[in-house]
Automatic annotation (TrEMBL):
Name assigned to this protein: DUF427 domain-containing protein
One Pfam entry name: NTP_transf_9
DUF427 domain: residues covered: 16-103
Signal sequence annotation: none
Protein's organism: Streptomyces jeddahensis
Domain of life: Bacteria
Entry-linked InterPro entries: DUF427, DUF427_sf
């Protein structure tokens, strides 16, 4: 990790819901919580808790030196709304194949 840059990953128990344009895209009580210096807390959700039938794979890929290469999915009207790391760096292996959304609601 870069000087002063930290990432922690832990199994969460928060109740997380993702609603987009009135439709529930995901709901989980078993998020993997990732905290990274300079970034908002991110909740990575198991694919079983996501309406993957509503997602369309995107051509977009981004690279993070701390997490690896991300793949993206879109929903109608919102490109690249969802991402995952199919082969993450060893320090964040827990997020493998879990899906993350830009905006989530922590219900409780």
């Amino acid at each position: 990790m870069a000087e002063g840059h930290t990432i922690t990953v832990e199994q969460g128990t928060e109740h997380v819901r993702v609603v987009h344009r009135g439709e529930v895209l995901a709901e989980s009580r078993r998020p993997v919580v990732l905290r990274e210096t300079g970034c908002p807390v991110r909740y990575y959700l198991p694919p079983e808790d996501v309406r993957t039938d509503l997602l369309t794979p995107s051509e977009t890929h981004t690279y993070c030196p701390f997490k690896g290469t991300a793949s993206y999915w879109s929903v109608p009207g919102s490109p690249d709304l969802v991402w995952a790391y199919p082969d993450p760096k060893p320090d964040v292996a827990e997020i493998k194949d879990h899906l993350c959304f830009y905006e989530v609601e922590v219900v409780g």
